[in-house]
Structure formats: C-alpha cells, structure tokens
Amino acid sequence: FMTAAVVMATTPVGTVSRITNIANQRVKECNRIAAMVTELGKCGVVCRETDTGLEIEGCGIAPPASLAANGASIECYNDHRIAMSFAVLGSLWPSIRILDKDCTDKTYPEFWDDICSVLNRPHAIKPIVSRTIEKAGSGKHPSVVVIGMRGSGKTTLSRFASEQLHLKCVDLDDVVTATIQT
To answer: What predicted TM-score, i.e. pTM, was given to this entire model?
Structure first.
C-alpha cells in the first residue's frame, strides 16, 4: 500500500484516494499508516489516517510548492518498504531525501543502484546520511564506526558516508584480510 500511497499523491489536484482495510499495517516494522501520513505531510501532501487506512489528496504531477522550496527529509523508521516507496516518489519529486538508506540492505542491498540504473540517471535518488557525528577526544579526528555481519551492507553505507562527510573510509575486513595474507 505504501507505493500506492505515494503514487496517489501525484494524482490530479482535488482527487481524494482512499486505501482501506489495512489496519494490520499499524503493527509491522513500524506503524506504517502513521508513518505514511507523517512523511507524506513533510512533502506537502494532505494525508489523513482513517480507522482502517488512509486518505490522500492528490497534488498533481509537479511537487507541491512547499516541497520544491524546502525539500523533505524522509524518516524510514528502519522499514525498507517506506524507503523504497519514497524512492518512487523521489524519482518524480527530486527534493525528497531518504534519511535511512541502509534499511533497504536487509532485503535488497542493490536497491539504490538498481533504481538509478532503471531511471537511467546515476544520481536520480541520492539517499543521505543524516546522523550527527560527535567528535571524540580533541575533535581533531572524527570517527564513525559501523559494525555488522559480512554481507549486511556496512561497506556500502560506510563508503557513502565517508564521501558525504569527507572522512577516510577504512574497511577492517580489507585490513584483516591483507594482514593475514602477508
């Protein structure tokens, strides 16, 4: 329903779309109904929660003026489906920023690469890292440590974050492998 909801946001102005009988979506990775109302609202879309679902007022194909002027930072609540649905909307309304890019790694690690490839626009959807980094000690050498199992997407996330934050990325898997081989 989440991808349908973001598509419904692009229906002609004055259109009201309803998604019903999805009350069970309140108890998934997050309350998906409330999340969609909140995050669509950040995009300038009027969206209301109902007893069993939600209503979305169409804004038209062009982004709402408030979104075009200010952009929207979309919280994903660690739910890959929210990230993926707003990626669809972000392909049409480019002022949308996905804050929790790595939540897609658990089910579809190549999602961001694939969607940019399908759109034939290498940077069509550019998730951003939105974590505040506190500098340890004197603050001269900020560090971000990402810990996780192999294959969980930490290298992809770390490389992206290091580029955005202008920090050196050191992949300890590479360091350990190089050390063992020498």
So the answer is: 0.67
